[in-house]
Amino acid sequence: MRYGKPLARARRGMGGIANGRVDVSEPASISSGIAARYATALFSLAREEGGLLALEGDVDALDAALANSADLRDLILSPLYSREDQGNAITAIAAKMGLSPLTANTLGLMAAKRRLFVLPQLVKDLRARIAAEKGEVTAEVTAATALTGAQSDALAATLKARVGKDVKVKIAVDESLIGGLVVRLGSTMIDTSIKSKLAALQNAMKEVG
Q1: Residue 14 has pLDDT above 60, yes or no
Q2: What is the mean pLDDT of residues 86-115?
Q3: How far is residue 131's CA from residue 166's CA, in Å, rounded to a whole number?
Q4: Is 19 helix (H, G, I), strand (E, B) or coil?
Q5: CA–CA separation, 32 vs 125, rounded Å?
């Protein structure tokens, strides 16, 4: 996904890069802490206003945009954009994506505070809070090829039988796995990938040799 005009305007405004540079190399723990504060406020307001369904849609849309748009990732991570340019761009992008006013306003505030670089952590935090509110858990699944809707539903049902809760499956594709799946469910990891089996076989052959 590309956001041509908003990002083009932001790039033209890079002359203001001296204003409020941000160090995106901050430790992950600090970034997670910043994201948690915004997530707490946003989630609480959405719940009070009965807007959790809209917030869940926003989270899905932002997650997909971060995965598919190099331009968006550049916008939130590059220290070259001024506060104003970053803010104008994220506001225009939020409108184009159809995000709820509550989420759009939060993104605008994050831009003003030079905190957009924690957007990936914010999305992850919000997803966990929404899942907990719904009594479900999220399984992060990496597959060698994309799963069909039926395969995804079957996997969710299998995992639900294992953990006793509704499971929302989040799927990523990694062709290097060759075949099979890697499933992360909380602190549990299930690796049935061919890549993993080949690595285990190689290790076993080394021990024999």
Answers
A1: no
A2: 96
A3: 9
A4: coil
A5: 8
CATH number belonging to domain 4-131:
1.10.520.20
Q: Is the pLDDT of residue 30 over 90?
A: no
Distances in whole angstroms, Cα of residue 165 to Cα of each of 135, 139, 141, 179, 185: 7, 11, 17, 27, 12
Where does the pLDDT of residue 31 fall: very low under 50, low under 70, confident under 90, or very high at 90 and above? confident
Per-residue DSSP letter, 177:
G
Per-position b or e across 109-134, b if 16+ CB within 10 A of its CB: ebbeebbbbbbbbbbbbbbebbbeee
166-173 and 188-191 strand pairing: unpaired
Average pLDDT of the chain?
A: 86
* 149 contacts 194 by C-beta, under 8 angstroms: no
Q: Which residues contact 98 (CB under 8 A, 6 or more apart)?
A: 61
Location of each CATH 1.10.520.20 domain in the chain: 4-131
Handedness of CA 9, 15, 20, 21 (dihedral sign): positive
Q: SS3 for 167?
A: strand
Specify which residues 191 forms β-bridges with: 182
Give which of 184, 182, 186 is closest to 196, Cα–Cα. 182
**97 contacts: CB under 8 Å, gap ≥ 6:** 61, 62, 65
pTM passes above 0.70: no
